[in-house]
Design a protein that fits this description.
198 residues; mainly beta; 6-stranded antiparallel beta sheet; 3-stranded antiparallel beta sheet; 15 strands; elongated
């Protein structure tokens, strides 16, 4: 069980599946869920926290599927979420859950950073590429946005993952027209290509 992406309002969760055809996940804020599913019962899931079926006080079904990862949205920044996942087979009156063992875990959403990255520098500059380095602030991750020929004029928006960042200029997600995400990760440097005059 792990987190591919952690943000202020969402997680991208993944796991190694057991031998069930499908999996059911329940989530609760602040402490571990107590819910145990009942055989012969289907539950209503929604990947936006709080929109799925509430099966115990503060405990919501967020996932009911056969795959190995999903995006959990509708979360609050700086908040501790707890998970339980159950393997199962069947549907309706034939549903059988594995309840003697289950997958559990927890994670914190990120909070708004208070210290910005500083001391940006550029090396290995060629006609269409460069290496950018900086001193990290206190955020878990960093987003670098580039614009050709003029300063960046479209800041990123909260709750937008910009998951399509691409070090090839012009191929990444846009924060606004002509403003491309060229880096989105946790280190303090990247090598970008396709640069003209950014």
């Amino acid at each position: 069980f792990g987190f591919y992406t952690i943000d202020g309002t969402f997680f991208n969760l993944g796991w190694s599946a057991g031998d069930g055809a499908r999996r059911l996940m329940v989530v609760k804020v602040g402490s571990a869920p107590t819910f145990i599913p009942q055989n012969q019962v289907d539950y209503e899931a929604n990947t936006e926290f709080g929109k799925g079926q509430m099966v115990a006080p503060g405990e919501y079904i967020v996932y009911d599927h056969s795959s190995f990862s999903f995006w959990l949205t509708g979360l609050q920044p700086g908040t501790h979420y707890f998970f339980r996942m159950f393997e199962y087979n069947g549907s309706g009156t034939t549903t059988e859950y594995l309840t003697s063992a289950y997958l559990s875990g927890s994670g914190w959403t990120s909070k708004t950073p208070t210290i910005q990255a500083t001391d940006a520098s550029f090396t290995n500059i060629t006609t269409n590429s460069l290496t950018m380095q900086w001193t990290n602030g206190d955020g878990l991750r960093r987003l670098v946005v580039a614009r050709e020929g003029a300063p960046v004029n479209a800041n990123p928006q909260d709750n937008e993952p910009y998951s399509g960042a691409n070090t090839q200029f012009g191929n990444g997600s846009e924060t606004g027209p002509g403003n491309y995400a060229v880096y989105r990760s946790s280190s303090n440097a990247f090598y970008g290509t396709g640069m003209l005059e950014c």
